[in-house]
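Team,

Forwarding the record for the chain on the shared tracking sheet. I've put the sequence and predicted structure together so nobody has to dig through attachments.
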Amino acid sequence: MTWRDPQAGPAGRAQLLGGAASRRVRLVWPVVVLFLAVIGGIYAGVFTATEGAGHRPPGARLRVRASRARALTWRVFVEVLIESVRTTSMLFMILIGALIFANFINYTTMAFGPQGLRHSVSRCTRSW
């Protein structure tokens, strides 16, 4: 929309060109190397996917220690840990809800279609 009508949106920042772009790439390359090492190790058969997941945290820790910025303070580490716990708990709630729903479907025999539902209704009315 703003390509056709530049007045339709706010002005953006200037694109990174030249030296600024190369500085940004230099900040990203350790993450790319870590990713390629883990994925490459899995595909090359050096280690399994589970072992690859185990190699990632130590590699990331080495990357943080080697960085000049020293951006990972204890406060940032605790914030990251809390966010990880929140995300994990949300995923577990979705998983638990799916398991409860699957048990409900199996108990009511809805998985067998209308015949199963008719059978469960007739079974409930006989008990009265």
